[in-house]
Amino acid sequence: MPQPLTKETVDSKTDPSVSTQWDESTPKAEQFQELYKIADSMKSSLLTTIRPNIGPVSRSMAVAKRVGPDFLYLANIHSQKFEDLKENKTVQITFQDSSTQNWISITGEATTTDNADPRIKQIYSKGVNAWFGDLGDGIHTGMPEDPRMTLIEVKAKYIAYWKTTASSVGFLKEVTQASLTGKVADTGVNRQLFEKDIQEARDSSS
Hints:
By secondary structure, the chain is of the alpha+beta class. Helices cover 30% and strands 32% of the residues. It contains seven helices and eight strands, in the order αααββββαββαβαβα. The chain has helices at 7-11, 16-19, 28-41, 80-87, 119-123, 168-181, 195-205; strands spanning 44-51, 55-62, 65-67, 70-76, 90-96, 103-113, 149-164, 188-193. Strands 1, 2, 3, 4, 5, 6, 7 and 8 form an eight-stranded antiparallel sheet that branches. The longest helix has 14 residues, at 28-41.
């Protein structure tokens, strides 16, 4: 149900659309399980790197594998993002589901490996070669052994996500009612997970 806007909220300079939906009561283990469920339902993300003299640069990338709170991507070593990562290893991963309004924002640190990393063969899936091409020389084949194929591993340091608690119809009804009554829409829960929480989750999933 829409929540009333209070004078205390305004006086405290608090964003009511955020404060009414913060969830600090759900156990962390449950928060992580729901995070994983949302992330696993969205196979593609935006991976944002920091480019010198430009700033944040994003591109859509399919997640090759999620390992607890961390994410693995297969990528072409000739991509500009590897030059970005040489200068700044801080990255952001963003997921958004327009059908549910669920979203995830992850700030983390990226490490890269060469083609010798055995995890490349483990997480390679059919269709990845479509993004690499086959030169026909038996080397640059777009297969796991292709020397261009490398791994980007993003270890999360901070995670924020929003989980809807309303159906599509309920979401529209809630927003409409809030708009007509001067109240604040309450359509889901907003959660944040810090480095200590993330490390504990990482340890429990290893």
